[in-house]
Specification:
single chain, 6 helices
Length: about 200
């Protein structure tokens, strides 16, 4: 299993109220239990960070970023978002998204076998030395998933791979159902990474 370099959960809504999201409120509701390291609280945006997570809420977006991507933090991120939305069931929710970002050194990921049926023609058209990037959109368990690869021709720049799993939702029940699929979306991303990228 390859953990991503960064990951976040996004829940879009029509009308969050960032002014209620203070660090005291998060402690009181049991959403955050670790001590807060950074905190910004305004009527239009709240930012709360502890050692492992960063939570940003504005009027239309909640984003929980995993600052230290470990298996434990990854598993805990789901519960944090579930607690938040359960406290605000009347919020008009619109969409749920999971974002996973990976970086790999040049040579770790070989997309040519997947994307280039005629590598000789590509070398002839472009250059003997080339790297493939791509954007692929596919469906997965009700999510529209965008897989993006940004290649690198320089050994000091990594290959960047991103996954965005995006689902439209209409109510809190659908939000809960989508958030419950976080592990499934990660397993799908991981299976693609394992297929394309060599282990160290």
């Amino acid at each position: 299993m390859s953990l991503p370099n960064s990951a976040n959960i996004v829940v879009l809504a029509s009308n969050y109220n960032p002014s209620i999201v203070s660090k005291e409120w998060l402690y009181q509701k049991g959403i955050f239990t670790e001590s807060v390291e950074n905190f910004v609280h305004t009527p239009v945006l709240s930012l709360v960070e502890n050692q492992n997570f960063g939570l940003v809420v504005d009027e239309q977006r909640l984003q929980l970023a995993i600052k230290r991507v470990t298996e434990e933090n990854f598993n805990n991120s789901n519960g944090i978002v579930q607690k938040f939305i359960n406290i605000l069931p009347e919020t008009p929710y619109k969409a749920v998204g999971f974002n996973y970002r990976y970086t790999f050194a040049e040579g770790r990921c070989d997309l040519s076998s997947l994307l280039a049926s005629k590598p000789t023609k590509l070398r002839s058209a472009f250059s003997p030395r080339y790297q493939l990037g791509t954007i692929i959109v596919f469906s997965f368990k009700g999510f529209v998933t965008t897989f993006t690869v940004t290649p690198s021709l320089s050994s000091d720049q990594p290959i960047r791979i991103r996954f965005n799993f995006h689902a439209i939702v209409a109510n809190i029940q659908e939000v809960r159902a989508r958030i419950a699929l976080q592990t499934e979306t990660f397993k799908k991303a991981d299976s693609i990474i394992q297929e394309l990228c060599k282990n160290d």
